[in-house]
Design goal:
Elements (H helix, E strand, L loop, with lengths): L11 H13 L4 H17 L4 H18 L7 H5 L3 H16 L5 H16 L4 E4 L3 E4 L5 H21 L4 E5 L3 E6 L3
Length: 181
C-alpha cells in the first residue's frame, strides 16, 4: 500500500525552480519534493536550522574559492602565525562574503557563520546578545595569543563587509556585537 498524498501549495517561481532541479536529477517533482522536505525536516528536528546549513555551505564554498582546500592544522601551525595573517584572512574572506549578502541581516549572519566556523575548532563559540568566542581549555599564553588573532580576524572581516562591530576582550576570549547602522 502506498502512502497517502496531500496537496502542497507554493509560489509559481519556486515550483518552476523545483521542476528544473528535479529534471537535472532525473526525478519526478513529487519524489524530489518529498526528498527535499524530508531532509529539511530531519535537520530542523535535530536542532539544525536550514539557514545555518545554507550559511555554512556558502561559507565553505567561499573559503574553497579563496584559499583552496581546507586542512585541519595542529595548534603549532596556528600559533606560529602573526596578527597580520589573521587580519589578511579576515579582510579577504570579508570581501568575498560581502558579495553574497544583500541585507545587513544576511551580512551579519554570514560574518557570524565565518567566525563560528573558524574558531569552533579551537575553542567555544556561543550566541546570546552577541557572540562569545572563548578558549577555556587552553594554556593561558595560548589563550592570549588566540584572543589577539580572533580580534584581528573579526575586526578585519567586519570592516571589509561594511559592518560595524564592537569587540571586547574578556579573560579567555572575546565578546562580539554587531552594531546597527
Amino acid at each position: 500500500m502506498s502512502p497517502s498524498r496531500h496537496s502542497c501549495f507554493m509560489e509559481s517561481g519556486v515550483y518552476n525552480r523545483l521542476v528544473e532541479a528535479a529534471k537535472k536529477r532525473n526525478m519526478s517533482v513529487y519524489k524530489y519534493t518529498n526528498e527535499l522536505v524530508s531532509r529539511a525536516l530531519d535537520l530542523e528536528e535535530s536542532g539544525i536550522s536550514l539557514e545555518s546549513v545554507r550559511s555554512y555551505a556558502l561559507l565553505l564554498e567561499s573559503l574553497s574559492k579563496y584559499k583552496g582546500r581546507i586542512a585541519v592544522l595542529p595548534f603549532d601551525a596556528v600559533l606560529n602565525t602573526e596578527v597580520p595573517h589573521w587580519e589578511g584572512l579576515g579582510r579577504g574572506l570579508g570581501l568575498l562574503l560581502r558579495q553574497m549578502g544583500k541585507t545587513k541581516e544576511e551580512l551579519v549572519s554570514l560574518a557570524a557563520s565565518a567566525i563560528k566556523f573558524l574558531f569552533q575548532f579551537m575553542g567555544e563559540v556561543s550566541y546570546g546578545d552577541g557572540m562569545s568566542i572563548s578558549f577555556p581549555f587552553l594554556h593561558v599564553e595560548m589563550q592570549k595569543r588566540l584572543v589577539q588573532f580572533a580580534k584581528a580576524f573579526v575586526i578585519a572581516l567586519s570592516s571589509s563587509m561594511g559592518l560595524e562591530v564592537e569587540v571586547r576582550e574578556e579573560e579567555s576570549g572575546l565578546e562580539v556585537k554587531f552594531k546597527a547602522p
